[in-house]
């Protein structure tokens, strides 16, 4: 597969583990009941790529280490660059503290809180503190696939594109392994955001009948999924015939209009992506990280 990989800019960003956030004493679910539970941020020891996104006693839980540049200025231009430049599959490295030298992998983004999620092994997780510094070698934004010009690429390390099993069919159609297809009709929070190069948007899971019918209960952190009739080329919106491929980046939510988050990787407004169902289409399986760490 011919790409412009040799013309991409590779640069570093540096952040630190993001402290957990508590928004209020109780958050209201879609049934009007209040919950007081863990939420976003933190060094999370027991939630990893490959785990289910359902059933956790928490809301919008992020796997591994949530990382940010500036917790006080989440909307600053520098913080926005920190959320944009790293791509899924990029290498991260701890550069201070007891975990110095430990290497991890970028596994997703979370909009709103502007977190970058990074997978580390258990030894690194046990040694990390909130004072430590993490450097990410950012590489991938601006990636183009020569024989699939109608497919837009965001947030994707070129090495991961090669390992994923993506192929090109006649007519410039990209065939992409995914664990499942999700209709655009059930996408929620994050819909309409103008920047597919940052953050995510959520699969709404408030209707249990829909969850069961679509098999959404099988969703795991790191799954590649296809969103049908969804255009993410210049922002996130409904567009009949479009296809977007993303990675599941955060857990389910009890909040109305929320659910498992999906970060954008590939999108074609004119349907030049053909999803291929595969139970192996998970970042953890491909890279040997998270629950699949070798």
Please provide a written account of the structure.
The chain is mainly β and 294 residues long. It has 2 domains: 5-138, Thrombin, subunit H (Beta Barrel); 152-292, tm1086 (SG structure) domain (tm1086 (SG structure) fold, 3-layer Sandwich). It is 11% helix and 30% strand. The protein is built from 5 helices and 17 strands. The chain has helices spanning 77-84, 122-127, 158-164, 208-214, 283-287; strands at 11-17, 27-28, 34-35, 65-68, 91-94, 103-110, 115-119, 134-138, 152-153, 167-169, 173-178, 180-183, 201-202, 224-231, 237-250, 261-268, 273-277. The chain has a 6-stranded antiparallel beta barrel. Strands 9, 12, 13, 14, 15 and 16 form a 6-stranded mixed beta sheet that branches. The protein has a 3-stranded mixed beta sheet with strand order 10-11-17, with no helix packed on it. The longest helix is centred in the first third of the chain and has 8 residues, at 77-84.
Structure described in brief:
With 294 residues, the chain is mostly beta strands.
Strand content: 25-35%
CATH superfamily of the largest domain: tm1086 (SG structure) domain
Q: Biggest sheet, open or closed, and with what strands and sense?
A: 6 strands, antiparallel, barrel
| Overall CATH architecture of the largest domain | 3-layer Sandwich
Instruction: Give me the strand/helix succession.
Output: EEEEHEEEHEEHEEEEHEEEEH
Based on Cα principal axes, name the global outline: globular
Q: Approximately how much helix is present in the residues?
A: 10-25%
pLDDT under 50 segments (min length 5)? none
> In angstroms, what is the radius of gyration?
18 Å
Average pLDDT score:
97
- The top level CATH class name of the largest domain: Mainly Beta
At the third CATH level, what is the topology name of the largest domain? Answer: tm1086 (SG structure) fold
Q: Count all strands and give the number.
A: 17
Spatially, the strands of the biggest sheet line up as 1-4-7-6-5-8
